[in-house]
Predict the 3D structure of the following.
Amino acid sequence: MSEPSTGAGGAGGAGEAGLVGDPYAWLPASIVSSVAQTPGARSLTFAVPGLRPARAGQHVDLRLTADDGYTAVRSYSLSDVRASAVPAVPAVPAVPAASDGVGGAEGVGGAGGAGPVPQIEVTVERLDDGEVSPYLVDAAEPGDPIEVRGPIGGWFVWPPTEFEPDSAVHAVLPEPPGATPLRDVPVQLIAGGSGLAPLMAMVRVRGRDAPPMRLLASVRDPGARWYVGELDEAVRASSARAVGVSAAEVSGVGVPAAGVSAVGVSAVGVSAAGVSAAEVSAVGVSAADGRTGGLTVDWVYSRVAPDGHGRPAGRLTRDELESLVLPAAEHPLVYVCGANSFVEAVAGWLIELGHAPTRVRTERFGGV
Ligand SMILES: Cc1cc2nc3c(=O)[nH]c(=O)nc-3n(C[C@H](O)[C@H](O)[C@H](O)COP(=O)(O)OP(=O)(O)OC[C@H]3O[C@@H](n4cnc5c(N)ncnc54)[C@H](O)[C@@H]3O)c2cc1C
């Protein structure tokens, strides 16, 4: 990860030049775009001058201030961190070049703070009786005074840091000598509802040489799914890589985007050519070097399942969890995120199923 950009937050940038890089500094932010994920959820992209590069899994605090000065602060996971790292802007020379007459570099990183501005995305689910989330989903507009603090968090991040000298947690949970480097072990992501947000950031930062990644997402009904098209495309692309053909060729053999996600890719074969996206993904998971970037996505539905879905709607059970996640024998790193009760239940089952507590990382959003 590159060093924090100081150029964008220079004098006149964030307005608090002395605090740039301080994770507890409030930074003025502006909404640059937003997109509805569902009628009840929206992704918001903020430009935040002076923000340090973020890692997938981290969250930020948002502070809203009303006209009368009342403030409200809420935490939101980052659903996309890819634009948070911007190229460092060259420092302004202490003594300007004598008189070459060419001022091309002047102003870059200068007092005006010109340069690329870090951007982050959060995805917010509206809680109808909530104070902040209805505003963010339904009313927030570019220019509204919102401040950002963060990024925050060092444990619930992927790729994981091998050794974090500052982390007391990691210090007492060492990996055994000779173990596969943490960033190379298979990854299991498990989301309950809006808990998909930080896990999507992890999916988005996967490189071509990433270890196999499997995502299990539990939602109320098909209309509550986020990032459907993007996840379908990511599964198709990773499948194509695993079998050595282009994404276009895979699309061409008839893996319908809607079908892949609607039926749960590992449950039902959907391709007209007789090879399901899940089956193709499985090729990637079992490849000899284990690093094909293979991605598998499974949806389960708690209240209403789509027609043809192999599993009736209902809450996730321990037995289902066992069949839908990477087995403990593969020693995956597991990331679980969602409301408190979902995380508690799933994390408990994972331990019962033999997953090492040191490999189960959790993020709780609150609620019941
Ligand atoms: C680290 C962290 C990351 C988070 N990331 C996200 C995210 O990416 N997307 C997102 O939508 N939310 C996220 N949340 C939850 C978010 O911070 C707010 O709690 C949520 O948006 C509700 O705020 P509110 O002001 O609308 O509701 P409030 O006015 O605070 O509460 C309204 C009611 O909803 C209940 N409630 C609060 N939080 C939840 C919840 N998560 N589930 C169910 N009921 C709840 C309260 O108990 C209360 O009864 C995160 C929370 C934490 C701690």
